[in-house]
Amino acid sequence: MHLFQFSLDDRNLFLISIGVFIAQIAFSSITPFLPSLLIELGLESNISFWSSLIFSIHAVTFGIMAPVWGAISDRYGKKPMMARAGLGMGVVYFLMAASKNHIQLLMLRALNGALSGYIPAAITLVASTSSPDRLSHNLGMVNAASAVGAITGPMIGGLTAKLFGVRGSLAFTGFLLTIAGVLPYVTRIKEAPRSKKAEDSIKDSIIKTFKNRQLTLVFMTGLLTQAALMAILPTLSLVMRKMAPENAELYTGMVFSIIGISTAIASPFIGKMTGIPLTSLYRWSLAGSSLLTALQGLAGSVASLLILRFIFGFFNAAMTISGNVLIAKVGGRGRQGSSFGVYNGIMSIGLVFGSTLGGIMGDRFGLAYSFFGSACLFLAAYLLSFFVKEPVREDSGAV
Q1: pTM confidence score
Q2: CATH among 3.10.20.90, 3.40.630.30, 1.20.1250.20, 1.10.10.10 for 201-388
């Protein structure tokens, strides 16, 4: 059947979602425990500094390599990129489990960032093999799988760290990533034929991506939204300590995870909202995110903050899915690897910028101002999104 050969059928979507779920568990399971590993490695001073350095170096090297891997995926396929990321990071996590000091850990985190990109490769594979009429639905399902993995990961990480220690948890994470890496080939996930547009060099592919004005506008809104999402992270745990000092750790975990719950619930439904113009959905999600983030800064209790964060997850789902669909459609077929690669590289800049800005505003003006700064970034993204044009409707036939 034509549909079976060229479009992302339900089997393909299910298998890719499983891979994303496993990979997201791996990514989110060990991150909270890296500072503990530094202590275990014998570091006695400047632990906060080295913790932030180890977190940020991953984003820096990922940002540098993401456009390169994206362009390579246009030339050689998305499945090889999923395998490269999964197996490469799996090996790095095994090496981190055996690291002897914080310098080795820092270097391995840098290598891990350079090799990472499993979920971006999976999203690109979905985008490149989905028919236009199923694109939003399929990206919504993958987003839901990622959200569920992000919720599950810290629980599994906490359990494995308790049973096997932090090093054992790192080794287990390496095992999960290895499974995710071989999954596309073991299960024979199908991939669309490579387009002739991918014959450009890697450098030319990246340059042509930036020359797409509409795509660049989507990148800029994405940069602002990523910075907005990250701006509250440096102060969120401090806000919880102020609100509920006796149960700060418990409530901090709840506040972080509750967005994942609502995002997972909303994503499949958002993906089916094809009757709403894509740019309208994107704009309203940005406007809602701005309002809800400002209200979080005014929250006076744990309960009110949890409710606002839960509602925010619905707008976060709409923002993520509509943004990914815009990139897939505006970037054009045959260049989606480069489009998503450059986008993910830019997102790493937003990560560093947002967390730095949020920390500065929280220290200088008060904890609530990191939320207000985040809300302003969402608002700026909302205003910028009015320059993004609705993509031309494509033929709904198979890809």
Answers
A1: 0.83
A2: 1.20.1250.20
d(CA 107, CA 109): 5
- Report CA 222 to chain centroid distance, whole Å: 11
Amino acid at site 140:
G
Distance CA 237, CA 256 (A): 9
Which among 280, 279, 395 is positioned nearest to 326, based on CA atoms? 279
Domains 1-187 and 201-388 share a fold: yes
User: What's the one-letter identity of residue 161?
Assistant: A
Q: Report the C-alpha gap between 113 and 111 in whole angstroms.
A: 5
Q: Is 8 exposed, middle or buried (0-12, 13-18, 19+ CB in 10 A)?
A: buried
Q: What is the 3-state secondary structure (H, E, C) of 145-200?
A: HHHHHHHHHHHHHHHHHHHHHHHHHHHHHHHHHHHHHHHHHHCCCCCCCCCHHHHC
Rounded to 10 degrees, the C-alpha dihedral 90/94/96/98 comes to -170
Distance CA 327, CA 169 (A): 35
Cα 113 from Cα 155, distance rounded (Å) = 23
Backbone angles phi, psi at 220, to 5 degrees: -65, -40
Q: pLDDT digits over 104-113, tens only?
A: 999 999 999 9
Say whether 193 sits in a helix, a strand or coil: coil
Q: Does domain 1-187 match CATH 2.130.10.10?
A: no
The helix, strand and coil proportions of the chain, stated in percent and rounded to the nearest 5, come to: 85, 0, 15
Question: Which residues of the chain are modeled with pLDDT < 50?
Answer: 1-8, 395-399
pLDDT score at 77: 85
- All residues at 6 or more sequence positions from 267 whose CB lies less than 8 Å from its CB, including other chains: 140, 141, 143, 144, 147, 317, 320, 321
How is the chain split into domains, by residue range?
1-187, 201-388
How far apart (Å, rounded) are the C-alpha atoms in residues 338 and 135?
18
Q: Enter the tokens of residue 208.
A: 């042509």
Task: Decide: 7 and 133 in contact? Cβ < 8 Å.
Answer: no
Query: Count of alpha carbons within 13 Å of 251, Cβ hemisphere only?
Result: 20
Structure tokens at 67: 């456009």
% residues pLDDT > 90 (the chain) = 42
